[in-house]
Write a structure and sequence with these properties.
The structure is a homodimer of 324-residue chains. With 324 residues, chain A is mainly α. Chain A is built from 16 helices and 2 strands. Chain A is globular, with a radius of gyration of 20 Å. The two termini of chain A are 29 Å apart. The mean pLDDT of chain A is 94.
Chain lengths: 324, 324
């Protein structure tokens, strides 16, 4: 069974060689630009891992792995238009570089391309895999809609926020795991277990993203800190802050978060001061650990040898490491 | 075998009852708004027709029929953002009513929804149907890219223009016909014949759209005349005009077409005067008839009883009627 690094190399190689047509250049150049942008390739990785757990000798379904990565990159491309994001992975976003129309259209082509890749899986599993994929894909859209709705919603509860990130982030990771299991010949029950495992992993992952935006290191992340704060975005941290603060501090915090009057550095510093006063970082860390532990718990439901499950446990640890 | 009107009722009924989730409203309301907007439903109609030609007793694959219609409506939704179109089928476009972000996201959800509907076809045909669908879907994106590229291209040849409308408009009609044939159990060769038939039909259809924009009746079309002229768009008519005109008139025509200085009515009138001088309408009509005749010719390649092919012939006639 290939280890994580070997699988990552397979994925990068496969994605870098995807045979996009030469013309029209205006359509395919932004797609290649987006896909060569790197990223963690978490979704294809988890797909190949779950596939090999259930069938170590089967050839890796790199088309399916690429499909979930292409789909993920499509969501980034369109989200960046909607969020008016300028920088992604240290590079200009597609709509900044080529304009909105190109960005919309290239994103559309990526969804279709993802389905086209996915359609090449073993025909025995095609129908099931499509069902999982379409369900998660539509849920990702629903999550993005809730995220946009939240921009103009005063009170977002923690429950609503967690449901939004479940849809927007977690289901794609969970669906990737379930697709991998399905392609490896897992039973429906086993597919469900890895789905629930990856759902918890995805929740931890997103809350960690929120945490790192405020408390991470610019050097390690390769992007500036405090972006969410400057945009006044609802995140796990900001929602915890409104829950933990007394009425006076809550008022102050909300005004501050939506203020454009301060210099960026000052705004970030003042928001983080409130986070520190309210112990928000600790609450976030505990929540991340809670979801990661839940992920490990769920893995125990699998009736498989310990060493088989090991790669999925290591994924959990690597997220924990990122946290500390 | 059901006639055209009966099939249309089936389609409308199925589409109006598609069970979209209640929430998030912001995502699904624009989709319902778009789909209830009517339109000719040409793509699902041709799909059901070709299906019944090859298998009159089989239950209609309304899911597949709805899939091509939902996909078509998705392209309208995203194209309207890119073209900054304000009105579609007499109603505000989605991006005018709800904004660009909603329009992008609801469109995305429609692509996924279309695949989800399509995935429910008989599993024997699933792989083939997906292949046809993804190929045509990506070609539609390519066509839209060429259409956008043409905006900033001085000289577009007739050949390039026809290739653009083949991709942007015809392949979706042709693919719908081929999917229907496939679902009806047609051979690959028969599927290819109806594909080529519908491709010609689609070319005629698009050139006719170009023709009607300048020479149609506002009452019959339900939209204002001259939109393409006001936008200075490249159409079959404008390309023929540049080919037929001498150097002096060509210069005058191009300047006029890109001018914003005139009142809308005056610009339309002056462009149409040049079209009349150059006999552009007749050339367009002849070209439409050429493609419709080619469509009829291709139908003769089918080794089927005349009455079976009749509905497809009638589709051709109904387009000819619209022309005269």
């Amino acid at each position: 069974m290939k280890n994580r690094d070997e699988l990552s190399i397979l994925i990068e190689d496969y994605i870098s060689k995807l045979p996009f047509p030469a013309q029209p250049r205006g359509l395919y150049e932004p797609i290649e630009y987006t896909l060569e942008g790197g990223g963690k390739r978490l979704r294809p990785l988890i797909l190949l891992m779950t596939q090999s757990i259930f069938n170590p000798t089967m050839e890796h379904e790199l088309n399916a792995a690429a499909a979930v990565e292409v789909f993920h990159n499509f969501t980034l491309l369109h989200d960046d238009i909607m969020d008016n994001a300028k920088i992604r992975r240290g590079k200009d976003t597609v709509h900044v570089k080529w304009g909105n129309s190109t960005s919309i259209l290239s994103g559309d082509a990526m969804v279709i391309y993802a389905y086209s890749l996915l359609s090449r899986v073993d025909s025995r599993y095609l129908s099931k895999v499509l069902e999982i994929f379409s369900k998660m894909a539509i849920e990702v859209c629903e999550g993005q809609q809730y995220d946009m709705d939240f921009e103009s919603t005063q009170n977002v509860s923690l429950e609503e926020y967690l449901e939004m990130i479940r849809l927007k982030t977690s289901v794609l990771i969970a669906g990737s795991a379930q697709i991998g299991a399905t392609l490896g010949g897992a039973t429906a029950q086993e597919g469900d277990i890895v789905y629930r495992y990856a759902l918890e992993l995805g929740l931890a992952f997103q809350i960690q993203d929120d945490y790192l935006d405020a408390f991470g290191s610019r050097e390690l992340l390769g992007k500036s800190i405090g972006g969410d704060i400057l945009e006044g975005k609802k995140t796990f941290l900001s929602i915890i802050a409104t829950l933990e603060a007394d009425a006076k501090l809550r008022e102050e915090f909300i005004t501050l978060l939506h203020s454009d009057a301060l210099a960026p550095e000052a705004k970030i510093e003042q928001v983080k001061e409130i986070y520190n006063t309210l112990n928000v970082a600790d609450i976030a860390k505990k929540r991340i650990e809670k979801h990661l532990n839940a992920a490990l718990e769920i893995l125990n439901e699998l009736d498989l040898a310990t060493e088989k499950i090991e790669p999925l446990k290591q994924l959990v640890s690597s997220l924990l490491d990122r946290n500390n």
